[in-house]
Each structure stands twice: as C-alpha cells, then as structure tokens.
Design goal:
The chain has nine helices and 13 strands. By secondary structure, the chain is of the alpha/beta class. It has one domain: Alpha-Beta Complex (Spore Coat Polysaccharide Biosynthesis Protein SpsA, Chain A). Strand 2 (32-38), helix 2 (44-51) and strand 3 form a beta-alpha-beta unit. The two termini are 23 Å apart.
Amino acid sequence: MKISGFTFIRNGISLKYPFVESIQSILPICDEIVVAVGKSEDKTREYVRGIHPEKIKIIDTVWDDNLRIGGGILAQQTDLAFEAITGDWGFYLQGDEVVHEKDLETIVDSAEKNLKNEKVDGLLFNYFHFYGNYNYIAKSRTRGTYPFEVRLIKNNKMIRSFKDAQGFRKYDPGSQSNNMKPERLKVKKAKAHIFHYGKVRGPKDELERARIFHRLWHDDQWIDKTLGKTEEFNYSPDYPLELFTGTHPEVMRRRIAERNWDFRYDPLKVTMPIGRRIMNMVEHSTGLRPFSFRNYTLLR
C-alpha cells in the first residue's frame, strides 16, 4: 500500500502558517508529498523543497487573485495537487493542520483495513481547533469548528475538492459540467486527530492573515467594512473555549515555545446567542450535533 500526501500553500512564511510542520508530520507514512506552491513573495518554495527533496514533489502555480467566489481558488489548488499523486491513498492537509506522531500507526492500520473495501471512499478524522493560542480549543457550534472532516481519500479521480476545500465530493464523469449533484464521500473513522492551528497567531499577525484570507471570498468594500481600520484582530470569542490538556505533535514543539503569546480568556465575558447555547447543551449531553453540516456519509 502506498500513501501520497498532498497540499497547497502560498506565502506561508509571511502569513505564519506551520506548513513545514504540517508536511513533516505525515512524512514518515507517505511515499511522496505533492505540494502546489503558489507564486509567493517570500521563501515558501525554498522551505517546501528543503523539507525532504526526495519525497517532495512541487507543482508551481499562479493564483488568480480575481477569483473571489466562495474560496474556490483553494479547491482549485487542492485538485491540482491531488491530480498528481500516485499512491493508493491521498493524505490531504491544509497549511495549518498537523498530525500527532502517536496517531500515525493507527492511520496506516485503518488505511490498510479499508483499502480493498470498495464501499469506502475515505477516512474521517476528529479535530482539535486551537483558538487564541496553543492552550485553548474551540468546540462550540460555530463556523470553522467542525468536529470531523475527511482527510484521507482513495486515489479516485472522480473525487474533487468541494467549494472552499474544507471537504470533498465524488463526481460522475461529466457531472461538473451538466450540473448533476455531486455525491458525498462514504467514509469510516480513522480514530485519529487533526490539530488545526487556525487562529493562534498574535493579534497583529492574525489581522494581516484575515485581510488576505477574506479576499478569497469577498471584495475590498466588504473587507474594509468588516475589518475597518483596526490594528489588531479581536480575539474575544462569542463562544466558550476549553483548556487543552493533551500533548501537541512533536514537530510543533519549537514553534509553540517561540510563539505562544499571552492570550487571556475570560469565560465570564462570553456572550453566546440563545439558539447556539441550546444546541451546545444538546451536544455536550448527548454527543449529537443536530442540524450540523456534513461533507460525508459515515459508514458503520
């Protein structure tokens, strides 16, 4: 069995993405890792190439900065990398997603068990979404804190990245052109976690990332209205956070030691809409997340 990693990145250094750590985290179980590297204003490409010259395969790309519809450029870049993989499985990580070394053996076992099962399109991972700094995780029902997502998929070219590249869909030949509804992937649980370090930068760095990130969805007028002339990102959450009590991936040790800023979280200042509060209570008491969006169909 062969596993290929695939991902994309642009200006990863200046935007302070842990893309090197992300790639390193799955390198031990991947025979190759395909990286779509967008033309950058920093040394992102050199850093990618230096991770492991024998295993890394770079696809040089140029992003269309005028494409501001639903983050579609992210799906386009994901598909470019996926098209180039040669393994039985494709392990997809975004530039701020990292895998813990303790889960690697479990992931490989799950992939081997489901390789010949034609009903299975991919494997589903649990998520830790870090917020503020590396000490807190967001688990509330809010945008960007999905509890599960598909990250290991079979090398089936009918599978394509969906919308803003959060997940995947399976398309019948020609269906993307004739508007046939894409099919959700059928998946089993990988019994492993993705560590998502999406919002752990200092307030100034996170604001800069947010301005650039929102350009993939919105026009300049929306960005100016939403972010205004503020100089720092507002990290005051409108949902509760939880203290992370586990261990971080070893590849993140140096970055965390150097960049874990003093984020102050006061649960008494959290104001959450009543509807979301009720849904959170249901989830915490039953483990169920009613009415939540899913990119997949879970097989038992």
